[in-house]
Amino acid sequence: MATISIKTADDIKGMRIAGRLASEVLDFITPQVKAGITTGELDRLCHDYMVNVQGTIPAPLNYCPPGYTPYPKAICTSVNDVVCHGIPSDKLLKNGDVVNLDITVIKDGYHGDTSRMFYIGEPSILAKRLNEITFECMWLGISKIKPGAYLGDIGSVIQQHAEKAGYSVVREFCGHGIGKVFHEEPQVLHYGRAGTLEQLVAGMIFTVEPMINAGRREIREMGDGWTIKTKDRSLSAQWEHTVLVTDNGYEVLTASQGMPLPPAPIQINTSIPT
Ligand code: MF3
Ligand code: CO
Ligand code: CO
Q1: If you take atom 11 of ligand 1, which residue's CA is the nearest one?
Q2: CA 235/CA 229 separation, integer angstroms
Q3: Which of 65, 77, 88, 152 could form a disulfide with 197 if both were Cys (CB 3.0 to 4.6 A apart)?
Q4: Is 24 in the pocket of ligand 1 (CB under 6 A)?
Q5: CATH number (domain holding residue 225)
Q6: Across residues 243-252, what is the average pLDDT?
């Protein structure tokens, strides 16, 4: 069984700061996410904001897990049928596109990891519904988090909500423990059975980041070694937060003024930083 680290009070303080800063990069870039800008320009704007305004380090830049080449940019920009890890480029965003921006910053050694979806102009009915269901999947998963709950409770509620809507859950990528290390134990699967896998303990910190496809769940890696697309070229959506297990539930660490609020019955259990 994997060993999942329990964060100290100092770690939690650091993770609150890193989480807020990651979310604030998304707040900063939101007004720029529109037709006519390239994903490369979004990357440069985010990079400069992180480095020059926040004093944070963009964690993706040169990130090199075993079997990968170093990631060449500061953020991930995943457009339409790109599931995750889209590399910013000279690709122009156009009306009708949907794009996920995934931001991970490092502040004082701690990582904050969060992503949101954006519409370019008016979305198709399919893109809007896929995005809304994926957002609900993330929040339903988060809402299960408390001491004594099982990791499988999170995956189960996400899979059921996605499949009930006629969508599929990507299996090759998952949420992850996070702290001074970008990706650590546990793996947080976005599918599975309630009451299975590890039990949660206060002080654990991990991400919930479901990738939901409008079509089949299979994926393909592109020749750049990073970009993942749906095999059937159907649309894919993703949302991500970094979450702390508290004594009586959860606290969303990647909260900020501009974050979209959870669907009605779900609490963020976090005071939005001013
Ligand atoms: N931010 C992604 C995640 O949620 C990881 C991106 S790794 C990169 O885990 F190298 F592609 F940036
Ligand atoms: Co993540
Ligand atoms: Co991320």
Answers
A1: 85
A2: 9
A3: 152
A4: no
A5: 3.90.230.10
A6: 98
Asked whether residue 273 is domain-assigned, the answer is no
The domain containing residue 227 runs over which residues? Answer: 9-252
Residue 72 lies in a domain: yes
Ligand 1 neighbour 102 (Cβ under 6 A): yes
175 lines ligand 1 (CB under 6 A): no
Amino acid, single-letter form, for residue 189: L
Reported in sequence order, the residue ranges of the chain that DSSP labels E, i.e. its strands, are 57-58, 76-79, 82-84, 98-107, 110-119, 168-169, 175-177, 184-188, 205-208, 211-213, 219-221, 228-230, 236-238, 241-245, 250-252
**Total domains in the fold of the chain:** 1
Whole-prediction pTM: 0.98
Evaluate the CA torsion angle 90, 45, 240, 7 in order and state its sign.
positive
The answer as to whether 53 is a domain residue is yes
Q: Apex CA 182: angle with CA 115 and CA 272, to 5°?
A: 45
Q: Residue 263 domain-assigned? A: no
Tell me the mean pLDDT in the region 176-189: 98
